[in-house]
Amino acid sequence: xxSRAYKAVISAPPLLWxxxxxxxxxxxxxxxxxxxxxxxxxxxxxxxxxYRALFSNPLYFQVFLRTARIAASVTLCSLLLxxxxxxYLSFHAGPRKELLYxxxxxxxxxxxxxxxxxxxxxxxxxxxxxxxxxxxxxxxxPVSFFLYSPFAVVLMLTHIYxxxxxxxxxxxxxxxxxxxxxxxxxxxxxxxxxxxxxxxxLSIPGLLAGATFAFVLSLGDFLAPxxxxxxxxxxxxxxxxxxFGAAYDWPLGAAISVCILLITxxxxxxxxxxxxxxxxx
Amino acid sequence: xxxxxxxxxxxxxxxxLLEVRSVAKNFGAAQVLKxxxxxxxxxxxxxxxxxxxxxxxxxxxxIAGFDxxxxxEIWMSNERLDTLPPYKRRVNTVFQNYALFPHLxxxxxVAYGLRVKSTPKGEIAGRxxxxxxxxxxxxxxxxxxxxxxxxxxxxxxxxxALINRPQLLLLDEPLSALDANxxxxxxxxxxxxxxxxxxxxxxxxxxxxxxxxxxDRIALxxxxxLEQIASPREIYARPATAYTAExxxxxxxxxxEVNNGVARCGPLQWKTAEATGAALFSLRPExxxxxxxxxxxxDAVRFRGVIRQQIYTGASELLEIDCGSNPTLxxxxxxxxxxxxxxxxxxxxxxxxxxxxxxxAQGSRATDHELR
Lengths: 281, 372
Hints:
The complex is a heterodimer.
Chain A: H1 4-32, E1 36-38, E2 41-43, H2 49-56, H3 58-92, H4 97-105, H5 112-123, H6 128-135, H7 150-174, H8 178-186, H9 191-219, H10 223-229, H11 236-244, H12 250-277
Chain B: E1 16-27, E2 30-41, E3 45-49, H1 56-64, E4 71-76, E5 79-80, E6 91-94, H2 106-116, H3 121-134, H4 150-162, E7 168-172, H5 180-197, E8 200-205, H6 208-214, E9 217-222, E10 225-230, H7 232-237, H8 242-247, E11 252-259, E12 262-265, E13 268-271, E14 277-283, E15 289-290, E16 300-312, E17 316-322, E18 329-334, E19 342-348, E20 353-355
Helix pairs in contact in B: 2-3, 2-4, 3-4
């Protein structure tokens, strides 16, 4: 058993960290969401006006819906890319497994901004994609909707978050004991039935973890809409950013942040419970 | 239980069920199996016995379909088996660590094979219940595998395999994860079950006692080749090779020569019908006894020796006897209290079995002239 003093010394730094950089900022944000801005000055007067504005102005709800739609699309697309990739690597890649795994991980080391600008060069009016399409005579003038659209945001975020989705799914698949797959085939199940009845159910915790990553990270993203999204793809985090910046309405921005935080936390809570339900020893 | 529902649909009680023809398996440069040929009769309990790395599990996996032979063929009931995927083979497997599906309960685990073959729901329920009754696990139908003990999981794995009415059941060291007492109990249950349902069992183990206790025949594998295949009594009483004699039970290996009908191994000599030349004999420790005026052995060979060590093992004593130029001889005699000094011992020349070094080491094919 460790002494009381040892425990205190060992746990003090992380506790301090959590208080200073998590709890305190959250408390400040929470407090701000109940204050006001009057004549360009912050007024420490408790009220619910920010929340009322939030729920009475349909604009915020619309932007939130769009954000959720984009996040859901990103989640779906990265699952559709990440799951088959993880499945292939785990079950069929053979000796190429290590190399392919590293190749999936490498993009994570490249700056988010660099990848954003890369998509800009690819999708723009005089970008790589339009140049290629015109070279092939598929189109005769630049297609403008590639860039500055919700599509571009989904594309960029999918590219960025697919490795995040891939990793937990791959880990889950790697943890499935191979004799279970053999037992399934031994009992008469072909590849498809084995996948649906054994592999997929046992990979659900990884799938949920990956989906949560992609959805939550996309939900709070503001750089992709800035870089490739344009006005038609403004997301909720862009609103928060402008409220804290140019608009100088910290209380309203804080109120939106509190709402997003609540949604995110309840989402994490739900998926964690679901993951537990689907984990078996 | 009613055995009828579990036994194979084609009720054959004799004849060859499975035939392994000159099967070899390489993993990269490693030859894991070398030219194995053997047959399994319907309803037979055949054990693949060998040390780890002898290729016994590999052979089982080839029959189950999890690996493909590098060369050779496997046939079952006049049908080529080795070209079929595992899910099309009328063979089921009990895995070493049971491989029960952790996300399914006991009932769903047992029903799995019937479900994937789209068996009618009503029939599934009945057969699952029957299979669970057979292994005495009906009261655990709703339990998850993780909540069961090793022995219970073992029973479920058996029920899950047998519900499919295979013609051949493959068992990959199914008892190795159980503690000694439970293991003995499961051995006798397994043997009784196999008799009752009359399905051929191919049983893999590294435990020679288990192989002796359960099998109709034992196939002893060594370095990927068949050393000897015979009934437990035959393989123990008449081992073909020195390796077999030492692997199954204990033995004394006497090196010497045969000259004009007389075998001579150090100070020991006896009359023999064996051919002239250098020779190796296996003499089981329990065939050597303390000489006694009342003891009449056919072709008795008597010798004197000094007891170097005595190990008491309860029902018997193991003696290490120094009788001159040979390495010490081991004798197992009934428990008889402390013994010291020089004594006269006796054995029957009929119990000294001439063996060759090894089929495998000489690269020749294993004996299957002992096949029924």
